[in-house]
Amino acid sequence: SDGVGQVNQAGIDHYNKLINALLAKGIQPYVTLYHWDLPQALEDKYNGWLDRQIVDDFAEYAETCFAAFGDRVKHWITVNEPHTVAIQGYDAGLQAPGRCSVLLHLYCKSGNSGTEPYIVAHNFILAHAAVSHAYRTKYKVIVRATIPIDDADSYPDHVHCRTVGNCCRRRRTGSSAWRST
Question: What are phi and psi of 7, to 5 degrees?
Fold first, then answer.
């Protein structure tokens, strides 16, 4: 498959059973829509999160999940650790899809560490906004859920940060977009 189109009913059935089993045990499920698991077809089609078109497919996927599970799921997370994915996957090349600049890391085969993390971050924010908009306009009356983006990165104020203050301030400022969505 090309990663879009017909829904995998076996997958829907599996998650329906899982959600029902959790609820039967008194456990409220928290569903993360993207936790570093982009289908290979979409990785190939869009070069991962580098193509703006992935935003629409992600929103459609989220709507499918809202329609199938929203009557029981009250807590949704759009993207888990987008900052980490952007930096580790498209700058340092340490996580999937392993992209980075050859000039920075000799083991890199493709990528541009100077631009790709920012493109990916931008597309994550757009995807979160599209999913949030779809939820608010089409599903809020039915679902009544929370729907944040999750950035688990933290920025302690170490002594070293005080000595290189501009660097740390820039890092904190760059991360503020994740917290404002």
Answer: -80, 140
63 in the same domain as 44: yes
Tokens representing residue 129 in the block:
């906004």
Q: How many domains does the chain have?
A: 2
DSSP state letters, 4-35: SSS--HHHHHHHHHHHHHHHHTTPPPEEEEES
Q: Answer yes or no: is 3 within a domain.
A: no
Q: What is the pLDDT of residues 37-58, one digit of tens each?
A: 999 999 999 999 999 999 999 9
166 and 141, same structural domain?
Answer: no
Residue range 92-106, pLDDT digits in tens: 999 999 999 887 667
